[in-house]
Structure formats: C-alpha cells, structure tokens
C-alpha cells in the first residue's frame, strides 16, 4: 500500500512539473531550486559521508556525481592535508626563527666589533674602524663592562692631592663623580660641609666596605699612610726620605717584589721617612710612555707626592743630606731587615684580632706565627695599588672585553628596544648616568670565583696540588652558593687550561697568553720567553681581577696568593672567605 502511494505521489509531481515546464519563468525557478538542492546535497554529503544521492523530476534527472565518501579515505585525506599544512607551517616558522637568530647574531657581533674599535684605537682610528662597520660612535650603545679610563684617572688625580692649604684631599661622603656635581661646588651649605669633612680627615675613598668587612683598622691605617707619604711641606728640613729601587734580581717574581717593597715601607714608617721608589724593571718596556717608563707610576699612582719625589732626588746629590741621615737607600738595610723586619706598631697590634675566615682542609685558621706580616703586607700593597693609572685601566678593559665582551653585547642587545644600528636607542646621557651610575664598577658575570693555580717550579717551595683539588673546593663553594657558575682562572700551566674541558658545568674565563707546556721550566725562563711587557701586564690583570672577584681559591704557600688574599681583605672581601689548598710554608 505504501509503495502504491509513493508511485502515485511521484506521478502527480511529474505531471505538475510537466505542466509548469511549458512556462519559461517556471522553468528558471525550477532549475534554480534544483541547483540549490544539488549544492545543499553536496555539502551534506561532504559533512555526513552519505552515499549516492539521486533526484529525478520529470525530464530533469540529476545524479549527484556519484558522491560516495568513505570515512576511512576521507580521514586519510584530511590527515595528509593536515600533515602537509603542519609541515609547511613548521618549516616556515623554523626558517623565520633561523633568520631572526642570524639577524640577532649579526647585531651582537657588530656591537662587539664596535666596542673593539673604540677600546684600543685612537679617536681617528676608532672612527675609521666604525665607518667600515657602517655605524657611527654616536649610536654605539653603552658598554657596561668597560670603564671610561680617562675620566676615571682624572677623578683619581683629584682624590690624590690636597686643594689649597687643606690637610686632606677632597675625601667626603659624596662618592666619586657625584662630588663634582655643580651642587657640590656652588652651594654654600654644601661647601661648608665639604670643608668640615676634609678638615677632619674623612676616610680614603679607595677602601670599600665597613670596618667589619676589612682587616682591623684598615680605613684608619690607609689614611695615616697617605698622610705620612704626603707631607704638607716636603722641603721642611725635618722631612727625611728612604729612596729605593724595586728588586730586580732575575729570580724575583712580581709577588716577591711587592713583599720587598712592603718591608721598605714598614722601615720608612718606623723611622719617620717618606718612601720614594725609583727604578721598576717591570715597567721598562714600550707600553709605559714618557716619564712613567721604568717607574711604578706606569701602573699605579706614585707612592709619594710629586714634590717629595723631586725633593728626594735633589737630596741624593747632597753630601750633607747623606751625612746627616736625612736620606737613606735600600743598601743601608740588611735583607733580613727588609724581608722580616718589625711591623709598624703605631696602630697597636690589630692583627691579634683578625677574623678567622681562611679555610684549609675544612677548618678555619685562627692564628699562626706570621699574622703581623699578613696584616701589614695587606695594608702596604693596598696603599701602593690604591689608584690604577689610565694604562692599567686600559689593560683591565681589554681583558674584560676579551673574556666577557660577547656576553655583554648579547645582554645589551636583548635589553634594547628596537634596532640599535638605526639609532633607535640613541639618547643623551642624563645626570644620573654621569654622576651616580658612573661610580659603579664595570660589569662582569657574577658571582665570580677567582682561582689561581700555581704549579711549575713552585714545587721546590711548597706542596703543589693538582687542579682537581682546586675544583673540589670550587664545588664546596657552589654547594652553598648554587648560582655560582663562572671562574676567572689564572695559571702558568697549559695543562690546567686543557683540564677545564672536563668541567663543562663551569664557565671558565682567562687571559689569552701562551703558557708553559713543561713542568721543569723556571718562572724566570717562562717570563723571559713572553717578554717584559706581557709577563708584567697579564699577571697584574689577574691580580686585580682576583681582588675584585666574589670568591677566591688559591695556595697560601704562594706569595702571589698571599698578596691577593691581602688585597681582598682590605677591599671589603673579608666575609667572602678564602679557601686554600695548602698553608704558608713559614706558618
């Protein structure tokens, strides 16, 4: 019955369609209607994966292109399309990232090269170098790891001499360049405060940290040594002098020279004399220009005022000065007196309460036989090295740039908003840049551990320890300070440098200099092979880098490590501690 009804319905629809077909407008409407049905069916088939759809109306029969979609073939096709799309998208993203990385690397490299241009070249040479890179000095971003050596030296010159009839230099509580701000020089109230501070004798500005962070009485002792070495009137008949060359025998290393001059400074203070140094063989090279050649003043500010130095050299020509004892020289004293003479007692015996912060074999050293020598040599070397010269500042800049320059360039590049090569970050320096932030130390990756590994011919003087023992101590520090990753390594042995490759979880930094490849070479032979300039410059750079590092590992049996420890303990580093692989041979 249902089949008959279906056929009757189809016959009625067909007849009606035939009647409507005689009218052209009706035909258009029907065709449009059927086209819409066809399109809807196609979409429905695609969405529901149906089988064949067929519509026949009178003379119009539409077979829907035999739209048979099997679900498995559709799924496979979709997956293929998706995979192709994903693969192409991933490749485009990878290509984009690669291009971006390449652009960043090029920008960082150009920034590093730009800093290199202005670091070691004259102004005209630097501008030519920058021109070849396609950049100008005005758009070159600030280099955080480099100092303005000229400005810094001018500041030190101001802090190392008196103004007018003042008893002290311009040592006030206004730090560094801030003391040169116009408010400090024009305000009557500020001027009065500055005068009071200078008159009373503020503590010297080359000491960092409080009394608790340094050896006992460090700030007072440093001030008193400066006063002793800078009399108000060097021509006063009561002013006496001790004139001495630095030790220059071939077997004496830099550390021994420092120790010897510390002994002569002690003699000068005990006898009420102004110490004046003359020939310094390690400064007798082409890097030290003009009057600074062969002089301590090539590397650090002179130990005495210019007036006293001139007066002492004049008196050396006077027989009367010799006969009256106004002038003495190093040859007037025995080696024992110089190397093991009495420590100045004018400050009492502050070495008796040194804070025990030196670790040897897991225990703190509370006392030993040479505590007075340890305290005094630290004070003497700190005073002699109180202000580095422009030449030494440049050496440190070059060392930091070689070791940390690319890290600094990457850091600066990532922090800039926009393309620095187009001058997008070119802004004038503000007052806070010039007077406040300029007093901060140059950037290095911190925390930084300095490690001096002494081997070679030192075996005849102390127990030599392998590099692995030093690294065990480094791991001990890292257990307490897990953010410690960087080591500034100083050593004369290539074997030590090669072994750093075994410690990939540490970042090692060191000066690029040829090192010894044999254990049986004396230090004197090694230094001779490097030449005087290199054999002096790179150890001094290592010394000052070690003094400024956050932690230090060394061997107290080495005079060099002994003196580094003293510089740190008069530079606010007492509470950083000191891990030594052995003890001093004289303790």
From TrEMBL:
Sorted UniProt keywords: Membrane, Transmembrane, Transmembrane helix
Molecular function terms from GO: alpha-(1->6)-fucosyltransferase activity
Transmembrane segments annotated in the record for this chain: 24-47
GO terms for biological process, alphabetical: protein N-linked glycosylation
Protein name per its UniProtKB record: Alpha-(1,6)-fucosyltransferase
Lineage of the species this protein comes from: Eukaryota, Viridiplantae, Streptophyta, Embryophyta, Tracheophyta
């Amino acid at each position: 019955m249902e089949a008959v009804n279906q056929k009757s319905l189809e016959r009625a629809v067909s007849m009606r369609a035939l009647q409507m077909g005689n009218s052209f407008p009706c035909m258009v409407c029907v065709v449009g209607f059927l086209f819409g049905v066809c399109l809807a069916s196609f979409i429905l088939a695609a969405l529901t994966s149906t089988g064949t759809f067929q519509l026949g109306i009178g003379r119009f029969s539409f077979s829907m292109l035999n739209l048979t979609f099997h679900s498995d073939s559709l799924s496979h096709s979709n997956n293929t399309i998706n995979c192709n799309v994903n693969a192409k998208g991933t490749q485009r993203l990878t290509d984009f990232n690669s291009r971006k990385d390449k652009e960043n690397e090029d920008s960082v490299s150009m920034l590093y090269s730009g800093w290199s241009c202005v670091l070691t070249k004259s102004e005209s040479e630097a501008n030519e170098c920058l021109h070849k890179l396609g950049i100008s000095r005005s758009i070159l971003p600030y280099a955080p790891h480099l100092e303005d050596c000229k400005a810094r030296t001018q500041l030190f010159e101001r802090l190392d001499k008196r103004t007018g009839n003042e008893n002290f230099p311009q040592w006030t509580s206004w730090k560094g360049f801030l003391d040169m701000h116009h408010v400090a020089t024009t305000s009557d109230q500020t001027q009065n405060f500055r005068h009071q501070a200078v008159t009373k004798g503020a503590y010297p500005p080359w000491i960092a940290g409080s009394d608790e962070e340094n050896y006992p009485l460090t700030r007072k002792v440093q001030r008193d040594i400066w006063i002793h070495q800078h009399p108000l009137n060097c021509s006063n008949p009561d002013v006496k002098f001790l004139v001495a060359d630095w030790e220059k025998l071939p077997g004496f290393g830099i550390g021994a020279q420092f120790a010897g001059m510390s002994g002569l400074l002690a003699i000068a203070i005990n006898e009420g004399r102004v110490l004046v140094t003359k020939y310094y063989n390690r400064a007798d090279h082409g890097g030290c220009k003009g009057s600074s050649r062969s002089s301590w003043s090539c590397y650090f500010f002179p130990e005495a005022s210019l007036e006293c130095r001139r007066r002492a050299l004049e008196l050396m020509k006077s027989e009367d000065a010799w006969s009256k004892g106004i002038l003495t020289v190093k040859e007037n004293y025995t080696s024992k007196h110089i190397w093991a003479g009495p420590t100045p007692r004018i400050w009492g015996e502050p070495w008796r309460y040194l804070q025990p912060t030196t670790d040897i074999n897991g225990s703190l050293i509370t006392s030993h036989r040479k505590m007075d020598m340890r305290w005094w040599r630290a004070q003497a070397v700190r005073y002699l090295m109180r202000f580095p010269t422009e030449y030494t500042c440049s050496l440190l800049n070059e060392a930091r740039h070689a070791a940390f320059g690319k890290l600094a360039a990457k850091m600066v590049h990532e922090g800039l908003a926009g393309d620095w090569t187009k001058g997008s970050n070119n802004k004038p320096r503000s007052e806070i840049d010039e007077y406040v932030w300029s007093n901060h130390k140059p950037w290095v990756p911190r925390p930084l551990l300095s490690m001096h590994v002494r081997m070679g011919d030192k075996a005849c003087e102390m127990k030599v320890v392998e590099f692995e023992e030093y690294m065990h101590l480094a791991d001990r520090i890292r257990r307490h300070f897990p953010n410690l990753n960087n080591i500034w390594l100083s050593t004369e042995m290539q074997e030590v440098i090669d072994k750093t490759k075994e410690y990939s979880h540490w970042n090692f930094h060191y000066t690029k200099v040829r090192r010894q490849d044999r254990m049986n070479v004396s230090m004197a032979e090694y230094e001779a092979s490097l030449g005087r300039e290199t054999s002096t410059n790179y150890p001094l750079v290592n010394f000052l880098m070690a003094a400024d590092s956050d932690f230090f590992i060394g061997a107290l049996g080495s005079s060099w490590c002994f003196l580094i420890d003293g510089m740190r303990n008069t530079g606010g580093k007492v509470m950083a501690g000191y891990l030594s692989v052995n003890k001093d041979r004289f303790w």
